[in-house]
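COMPLEX REQUEST
Ligand: thiamine diphosphate
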Amino acid sequence: MSVQSVSLVEAVRLAALQEMRRDPTVWVLGEDVARGGLYGQYRDFLPEFGAERVVSTPISESTIMGAGLGAALVGTRPIIEMRIFDFVMCAMDELVNQIAKIRYMFGGQAKPSVVIRMPHGIWRNSAAQHSQTLESWFVHLPGVIVVTPSTPADAAGLLVTAIRSDDPVLFFDPKNLFPVTGEVASVIEPIPFGKARRVREGRDLTLVSWSAIMPAVEQAAATLAAEGINVDLLDLRTLWPWDREAVCASVEKTGRLLVVHEAVEAAGFGAEVVASVIEDLGPAGIKAARRLGAPRIPVPFAPPLEDAVKVTPDKIVAAARGTMR
Amino acid sequence: MSVQSVSLVEAVRLAALQEMRRDPTVWVLGEDVARGGLYGQYRDFLPEFGAERVVSTPISESTIMGAGLGAALVGTRPIIEMRIFDFVMCAMDELVNQIAKIRYMFGGQAKPSVVIRMPHGIWRNSAAQHSQTLESWFVHLPGVIVVTPSTPADAAGLLVTAIRSDDPVLFFDPKNLFPVTGEVASVIEPIPFGKARRVREGRDLTLVSWSAIMPAVEQAAATLAAEGINVDLLDLRTLWPWDREAVCASVEKTGRLLVVHEAVEAAGFGAEVVASVIEDLGPAGIKAARRLGAPRIPVPFAPPLEDAVKVTPDKIVAAARGTMR
Amino acid sequence: MQPQHNIRRLVELYSAMCRIRAFETAALTAHKEGVIPGPLHVSIGQEGVATGVCLNLRASDRITSNHRGHGHALAKGAGVQGMMRELFGREGGHCRGKGGSMHIADFSVGMLGANGVVSGGIPIAVGAAQGLKMTKSDAIAVCFFGDGAINRGPFLEGLNWAALYHLPVLFVCEDNGVAAFTRTEAVTAGPGVIARAASLGVPGETVDGNDVMAVDEAAGRLVAEVRSGKGPRLLQARTYRITGHTSTDAAAWRDPAEVAAAKTRDPIEKLANLLSERGVAASEIDGIRSAAEAEMAEAVADAKAAPWPDEAIAYDDVQDVGAVAFGGRA
Amino acid sequence: MQPQHNIRRLVELYSAMCRIRAFETAALTAHKEGVIPGPLHVSIGQEGVATGVCLNLRASDRITSNHRGHGHALAKGAGVQGMMRELFGREGGHCRGKGGSMHIADFSVGMLGANGVVSGGIPIAVGAAQGLKMTKSDAIAVCFFGDGAINRGPFLEGLNWAALYHLPVLFVCEDNGVAAFTRTEAVTAGPGVIARAASLGVPGETVDGNDVMAVDEAAGRLVAEVRSGKGPRLLQARTYRITGHTSTDAAAWRDPAEVAAAKTRDPIEKLANLLSERGVAASEIDGIRSAAEAEMAEAVADAKAAPWPDEAIAYDDVQDVGAVAFGGRA
Ligand SMILES: Cc1ncc(C[n+]2csc(CCOP(=O)(O)OP(=O)(O)O)c2C)c(N)n1
Ligand SMILES: Cc1ncc(C[n+]2csc(CCOP(=O)(O)OP(=O)(O)O)c2C)c(N)n1
Ligand SMILES: [Mg+2]
Ligand SMILES: [Mg+2]
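STATUS: Structure written out below.
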């Protein structure tokens, strides 16, 4: 199987393309998708699949979400494109009260086979309403799968799995990593949900992260290695299901845990990881278990202010050193 | 100052009444509020304050929320009534992207002085769309205060504080506790946010909880006391700000922590409490730190199924015993 | 199909309405006895709408409903035993006891579910119609909602969308003049739902919802138009909710004279009178009604005797246990 | 006030439009140089709308805006230095550098903020009008939004609400025929915004938004009606967005001939020609324009020289540190 080096946005484009070619019930709806989408993630889809399967919609987020669900209920597999994550707030009834609950509430009669794509995170001084990342909310919401890839290969493989899933999948496209390149196979195989990827092997500290912040974490890990601190670095890739087993196994080995996320620290998914590890392993054997996230403020516009909320390699290195004391 | 014994719903009615009498800029909007509200929490408001200050609205949750904000920006202090929590999903853009961010985003120019009242929780087999409690979401959302009382006196005092607050307050009315009675002073004093209430003093285990589940927790604490396990029981009362100091001080004393909430355990606020305690005290001194919440499933309708998601005194006792091993 | 209001059709309509009335009356009683848990919204007095519309549909057509959905479900052909067991929260309910009255659904007959959120069914119906069109089905979608729903955003978005993509969907606004405890006119500006629909590109018309034959005629025509690819249509059916908002609401704020007057316009009584005028024997008319009552009494007895669902099923029908439970398609 | 289109008024309108054009042209250049961060949406070609409407408002009136809000802010009287510094993310910006272009606001002149969410300003304006009415103010609220916003739910909810409570709010639909990269006609069913407003009880009218005098006249009239308690009104102003959706969008999908034709209808050129016809000297007309350009060049120079905000301020303007920070009122 041949392999090519592509950007992350091209990788997800290829994944959706492959699945739309494979399965005629897969289609996409959202604003400007017929023009290729805001980031080119649907480039050239319109000529190949036509306006019935590549549906540019009005600015009607509730209906983009809700119509996607309705279309799933009659046997199609919609990819619901939200343009940016923040706009999902205009469609929360459809997502939270309908999509997430419908299979359960109707005792298994409904098959809400939708993928909801939400390019998320801090991106070029877009300020408070265009920079959010609330992925932990959806871990707390029964009925949905939460996918948060960070590499072209993972994004492609997980998107394939998402499209084939019968359950609703929230797919957090890491918009700040769209230009990042990596190798992707010409036939994209599905990657199972709930399996972390080990990025680096180490015995001193377990570092857990996901999504757009991963490159910063890797950079920090390299710096730490130069100081003689060897981290066991896991990219969770999906937050529900999440690879509790792999994290616990790693912490059993290192005795130390640092979870890093771009999102606000308070009540973020980092808390879940720390609490789970403490519950599974007991506090006794553990030397440190901490989180590093953003302060509890909206994302500001000006570069020096935005830097205050950003988790940077320096901050990660400092937090990691802190766990070693 | 005289004191009377009233139900929780009457206590919050009296609190809102007192504040509307005190401050002519306070008013209430929501569906059926002119008829007294769904639970009688605004009974007799219409005759006293008139239709301009007791505004029964169309079924337009986005606008109930957004108009409340707009009215705050011109100097009034709206109480935004959401009827039940789940309907706030129809108004999330207005809450998350507008209300929570407006003060910050505009550099302090805006004063979003609103109270958003959201009767929440599991209530009489109301099934998945009418039983949710996602309070932890809003701890993760910068810009809002999160209030979760469990007694008539706390609900009344915290509602007074909420109405006087210049910042947006999410007030989670514990709808299942509306009939519960307790003493309330005839002049309701504000209760500061961020101060836990010690319900029971003990040296064996720190038990932390809030809102509708508190009576079950108290019952469990009594059972445990009979077994010789004396719990230090804290009702957090507000989740942001929350009384991290009081919780840590208690765990320093007991060495054991159990956080109990009605909400789903995964990524609930219990995780934040556990992670914070581990970070502040370090794992070394702690013997156990756990959570007890609901399984990650929507709330089902039938009584025996609903029981599966309910946190009961028995489950709390069992979990508490588990931490003592 | 232009409905022929021959005796046979009238009897069909009458029987369908009687079954809804009997179902809901039995459910109300059971709820008062405390054997049906949770909230219960009945549509007593409104049976003409569900009946007149659904009797023009095929099994393959889909409907979405609101919180007041028993009539829509029954008229669409949902199994009575499964419905009653669902209301009781028992094993064998259509939703396995997970939904209850407010989430009644029977996908096997195209009933895609009641909804606890006002106007929640609108985008779902629109999407179902889009999916049906995309897959070249000749089935259509029908969306039932109340007059209260036209003040929520999804009404605008959904109708604009349906008109834009020329979707096979019939919107049915069941206009009983009231939303919970508020008269709709007190919270609804402008000339009404027909004008709103027209402004969004959806032609609509109004019918007396208590005249089941009028509903039958209009629905038959509109369903045919929708099915033939003419795009979405809206039907406003004016009716009256004789009972309160929920089973525990006496609607005491209404003038008793108003309710009494409304009872004289009861769609079931009206049709019974007509049947009698047309020469159908009183015994036959009563027989239809008592057959319906007997059917529902039996359903209640069955539901009462049915076992509770096993607690273990609370944990299925949802991906909740990680990778193992993930049911991907190869 | 019925606007008198004497020379004085024309000059006032011309000057206001020139200032908006000059501000945005300067900002575009600075953005291309990389000294303005983040997304930037300019309204070049649309200046007639903001100008014609806002010059009929009082300082106490409030406006809400959308993502394309520089013109609305300037026309409402927002301080230029504070605006430009905000776009640059510098100290002294109206939002202290926390908002940027998409969240431009100047509460001191009643400009309640741009908005990054399409139609986000609608409920806020409606609520502001309700608060103003409640407090017996004679101020009104004006709500600017694009043609794209009429397909989101808040449009329906907000207009119904305003009509219902008879609120002093003027809705201004700035109709440039396009929403991001999609022609509005391709996503908007029915006869249009005026019909939608009428169906919700809000009378509306259409004006050529590139004819600033026509906007001035219509807005003057509608503002007076709204202020006198006649209830909400809607003004649809047809215009054209000469530049792309954002500063980085060339809008290459548009036929160059279309853009060229639109440029001949440029509201600023049109008014310059009229002024000249009415005998105003070319030097005076040019003088107004170059004064505006000079003002904005100075604002850019000032903003470039202004210091970055101190990182410490990132942590204020939000309750984030617990009880201590809680600013309750006694
Ligand atoms: C979004 C939302 N808001 C409020 C409610 C509470 N509620 C349930 S039914 C109802 C009235 C609905 O009126 P209408 O749509 O006319 O239907 P009807 O009850 O008259 O059949 C209300 C307000 C809800 N279920 N959903
Ligand atoms: C709810 C929401 N959906 C999508 C967007 C992305 N977006 C920003 S501006 C825009 C187009 C808006 O068109 P219109 O309202 O006509 O204003 P114009 O840009 O033409 O001035 C879109 C889709 C958004 N900001 N908010
Ligand atoms: Mg109604
Ligand atoms: Mg536009």
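REMARKS: The two ends of chain C are 43 Å apart (CA to CA). Residues D 146-148, 176, 178-179 surround magnesium ion (ligand 4) (CB under 6 Å).
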